[in-house]
Amino acid sequence: MRRALVAALAGAILLVASLPVHAANTYGLPETVRINIGLEGLTQAVISATGPFLVTAPEGKTVFRDAGRLAVRTNVLRLDGDIAIPRGYVPVEERPTRLALIREARLAEAISPKSLVRIPFELEQLASVSTLDTGIGPSIFRASSIIGLKFAPLDQGTLTLNGKGYRGTFEVAPYGQAFTIINTVATDRYLVSVVGSEIPQDWHREAQAAQVIAARTYLIRHLGSHGSYDLDGDERDQAYKGVYGEADSTEKALQRTAGLVITYAGAPIDAFYSANAGGVTENSENVWVTSLPYLRSVASPGDEVALRSSWGASSYDWTKEYTEPQLRQQLFRIGVNVGQIQAIDVLEKSASGGVLLARIRGSLGSRDVIKDSTRFTFGLKSQLFTVQFRPATDQELVKVDDATRLTELGNLGADRDAVVLSAQSSLQTDGSVLVSGFKTKQYLYRLPARVVFTGKGYGHRVGMSQWGMQGMAVQGADYEQIIKHYYQGVALTKIAGP
Question: Are residues 152 and 248 in the same domain?
Answer without folding.
Answer: no
